[in-house]
Every structure is written in structure tokens, then in C-alpha cells.
Structure prediction request, 302 residues.
Amino acid sequence: MNASAPSLASTGRPSPAAALELLKPITWFPPMWAFACGVVSSGVSFSGHWLYIVAGILLAGPMVCATSQAVNDWFDRHVDAINEPHRPIPSGRIPGRWGLYIAILWTLLSAALAATLGTWVFWSAALGLLLAWAYSAPPVRLKRNGWWSNTAVGFSYEGLAWVTGAAVMLGGDLPEWRILALAALYSLGAHGILTLNDFKAIEGDKQMGLRSLPVQLGVQGAAWAACLFMALPQVLVVWLLVDWGRPLHAAAVAMVVLVQVAMMVRFLRDPINRALWLSAFGVMVYVTGMMISAWALRGLAA
Prediction:
């Protein structure tokens, strides 16, 4: 164990501010946005569904996603002591085993909220929570290999959230295949986005035996993998939208992809220093394409 790792002998209780930081509100946006895409793509009128929509957005972000952050920080506390010693657990602001207690409590609260939104939503949330624990907790600890970990998180944050949003609007029914197809493609694209986040932790990952893609493929290889994973699924989305008779939406998504490609060219020249830049600005462009695609499906369902 690293000497700088947090001591479990610490006493006291965490402050509300430290607990909120542990739940990482900044990470809630992607699944909340994906849930909103699912709501739009369902083709169902928003009227009369606002309570379910708000509850579903809370489930996707402040509950399930926040749970995954708490679980990850608890089981990653020794890695964070190397990479990010200011985080709540390694810094001691979340003392003792409070990080684990918060993760368990948020898991139970998330499952309880999901149960009020229908059977499909409950099982979808349960799968997301299972993946959150499998991602970080031994013996599975999917994050030990970047291929598996990024697939699991991309599926949870984008695909499951998108499908759940559509299911809430459809009275709990499984959405039609075109919704599932777009949710799957944007989940695959999220694999590349998650690889971008691994560039900031290469040294700590090496020391702790975590085989992220930058560790496995090297900096340049992982940079190319991230770009291809982001771009190729979106190219397939463009093709599908054309095939479904939505040429204007397809053209708009194509423009979104071209903007990302221009940013990727700049990123590939200096992956280490520009990974967070591409993650911040490229992702905003990426999620714009998601919503355009969702509205395309809404037109088909209308």
C-alpha cells in the first residue's frame, strides 16, 4: 500500500460539502443528457409525463451516476492518493469508511427510486448499479483493463440511460429497435471519450497495475483508439439516418462529426496536454449530435 494512502483509522463524519464532492456532480451531465435523448426519441408527448421525466433525470444523474462515483472513489482511494491526493477520501475529508457507507446508501436509494418508475426502469437501473460496483470493486474490478472498463461505463452512462428515458415515456415497454441501435452506437462512441480521461492518470495506473488504454497502447496508440471509437459510430449514425429518410438530421450530425474530426487532428499532435481539452469541448459537440439524432427518431415516431 502506498504510504500516502488514506488511513481508515480516521474518525469523525464528512461534511455535506465533502460528501457532495465525492458524488462528483460534474459527471452527472452525460447520463442525464442521454436520458433526455431517450425521452425525446420515444416520440411520446411530454405533456402529462413531467413528473416521470424529472424523476428519471434525477435517477440517471444524482443517483445512479453519483453512486458509481462514490463506489469508484472508495475502491480507488490508493490510486487517487498518487494521482489526485486532494480528492475527499485520500485527503481525509471523507474519514474512515464513510466513503463505503455513502456508496452503499446511494445504491439502495437509487434502486428504491427506480422501483417507482416501472419494472423495466428498475432492472435497467439495477444493471447500471451492478456495473458500477463491477467496474471498481474486486474481484471483478473491470477498470483493471481499459477495454472492458470503458465499454461498461459507456454502456451505463449513454446506452442504459437513453433506453431508460424512452422506456419511461413508453409506460415501461422496451423501446423499438431504432432507439436501441442509436443508444448502442453512442455508447460505443463514449468508449473513446472515457479513454480521454485516462490520459491524466497514466503514472498512477502503471504503479497500481491498472491497464488503461494509454498504459496498454502507449500515448499515441490510445489517442488514435479514442478518436476512432468516437468517430466511427457517429458515421454509422449518419448512414442510418439517411437510410431512415432523415437527410437533414443526417447532414447536421455529419457536420457535428466534421467539427470533432478537426478537433481530433489537433489533439493527436499532443495527446497528453490536449486530452482534457478534447474531452471538455469535443464532448459538448458529441452530445449535440446525440440530441439531433433523438429528434430525428421523434419525427419518425410522430
